[in-house]
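Quick note —
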Amino acid sequence: MHPRYLDWINHVFDHPVADSAWHWDVDAPSFSAEEPEIAELIELTFCNSATDLQRFTDAQLNQGLWYLASPACSDYFFALRSKEVPLARRLSAIASITVLYRDCFQPRCTQTLSHLDQQPSSPLNAICYMFWDICPISYLCDYPDEQQLADACFAVLADTFAIEHIACREAAIHGYGEFSCSYPERVEQALDRVLETEIANDLLREYAHSARFHSIQ
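Predicted structure written out below.
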């Protein structure tokens, strides 16, 4: 295990939940590391999310993952598209997002649709739904190894939609919407495959149809 992994986990997640998150404080603690190390720590976090994040509440996970993924809160996720990080590490870190959805979001999120604000909903559903909306790897144009990174992201979205959970499937559809400006034809083909599958929930199917024919972001 990475020698700083526990410190990293505590830095990202081990904070009280408040309306104004801890990281907005001018004296908020920081975690400094080079981008290759950050990419490795992100991958370790997601790959071990079933066990190592179990001690945190859903609200703490939502707050921490939002801090981790959103450029408005931190710069960490830029490591996954940085030329300073070996390509193999970037690809494996992106692939680990599937594990986060399968091992963390699937067992802990409620079977509700966030785009309709269905209740009752776990606090964790927010980041499950918004992940691809806020993270910087949903825009890859002209970045080093763009094609390989895009392939990895589309593989994650396909694997996420295959998870038998309404919130995970909704998040995958939302994710496709975030890529629609950069890769419109590829997104249309992916959503055609989605609509060819059996989607028992009519509202989820309607959302997929809207993503395919009317565009969502």
